[in-house]
TrEMBL record:
Organism: Amphritea atlantica
Gene that this sequence comes from: hisI
Cofactor note: Binds 1 zinc ion per subunit. Binds 1 Mg(2+) ion per subunit.
Subcellular location: Cytoplasm
Occurrences of domain Phosphoribosyl-AMP cyclohydrolase (ranges): 31-105
The name this protein goes by in its record: Phosphoribosyl-AMP cyclohydrolase
EC number: 3.5.4.19
């Protein structure tokens, strides 16, 4: 397969593009992460979400430690060519490193961010410390 499709993505000055992971059935936004060119190409090749970890400065295969893999169902590029939307099946039902279904579990109430989604699994039991 030609890599011309990768050239059409508008990468930021760090060579990254934001990627939104969305549940392929419910449409719920699960998380937002970053991809570099290699991560995006591997995501398509391996049919699973692979991101670039800015904190670790390395590729991050979602679920490599937790088992909570994101199986790719569809991939889209926005109208400005600078945001990727991944439609995924979230294996294990947990996308967030906090042990929740998704990363958007805080809501603004009376000027404070309040967690309103339950922890489904204690993160200490998911990740080796």
């Amino acid at each position: 397969m030609s890599e011309l499709w990768l050239d059409q993505v508008k990468w930021n000055s760090d060579g990254l593009v934001p990627a939104i992971a969305q549940d392929h059935i419910t449409g719920r936004v699960l998380m937002v992460a970053w991809m570099n060119r290699e991560a995006l190409a591997l995501t398509v090749q391996e049919n699973r979400a692979i991101y670039w970890s800015r904190s670790r400065q390395k590729l991050w295969r979602k679920g490599e430690e937790s088992g909570h893999v994101q199986v790719l169902h569809d991939i889209r590029l926005d109208c400005d060519n600078d945001v990727i939307l991944l439609s995924v099946e979230q294996l294990g039902g947990i996308a967030c490193h906090t042990g929740r279904e998704h990363c958007f579990f805080k809501t603004l109430k009376e000027g404070e961010w309040v967690a309103v989604e339950p922890v489904l699994k204690d993160p200490d039991t998911i990740y080796d410390k």
